[in-house]
Amino acid sequence: MDDTTLAEIISKGSCSNIPNTLRDVAKWSGDNQMNINNKYWGKTKDILVSMNILNLLSGALCVDDNVIKRVYSYKKVTWYCNSV
Q1: Measured between alpha carbons, how far is 63 from 8 in angstroms, rounded to an integer?
Q2: Burial grade of 33 (CB within 10 A; 0-12, 13-18, 19 or more)
Q3: Can you tell me the distance from the alpha carbon of 15 to that of 11, in angstroms, rounded to the nearest whole number?
Q4: CA–CA distance, 47 with 13 (Å, rounded to integer)
Q5: pTM exceeds 0.85 for this model
Q6: Secondary structure of 16-84 as H, E, C letters
């Protein structure tokens, strides 16, 4: 698996489902012999965009013993292809 992005919109008063989704992706990867080894967990990042300062203080994401580093900015290159 290469460069996967998980994203969600959380309604006011709701909780994030990203920890569960992340665990599902990690399990699927392992079940399909596409394990995310420790070298690559170090490259995995978490960014949270919120208008609520309390959300920004929420705990780190973890999978097994791997803590995912939270970043506060990132650069994402996107390629668009339009069929005419």
Answers
A1: 18
A2: exposed
A3: 8
A4: 19
A5: no
A6: CCHHHHHHHHHHHHHHCCCCCCHHHHCCCEECCCCCCHHHHCCCCCEECCEECEECCCCCCCCCCCCCC
Task: In whole angstroms, give the CA distance from residue 48 to residue 71.
Answer: 8
Tokens of 6: 């998980």
C-alpha to C-alpha distance for 9 and 49, rounded to whole angstroms: 10
Q: For each of the chain's 84 residues, which pLDDT tens digit applies?
A: 467 788 888 887 788 888 888 889 888 888 998 877 666 677 788 877 777 666 656 677 888 788 888 887 777 666 666 665
**C-alpha distances out from residue 68 to 42, 43, 79, Å:** 7, 9, 26
Residue 14 CA to residue 58 CA, distance in Å, equals 14
Residues, the chain, total?
84
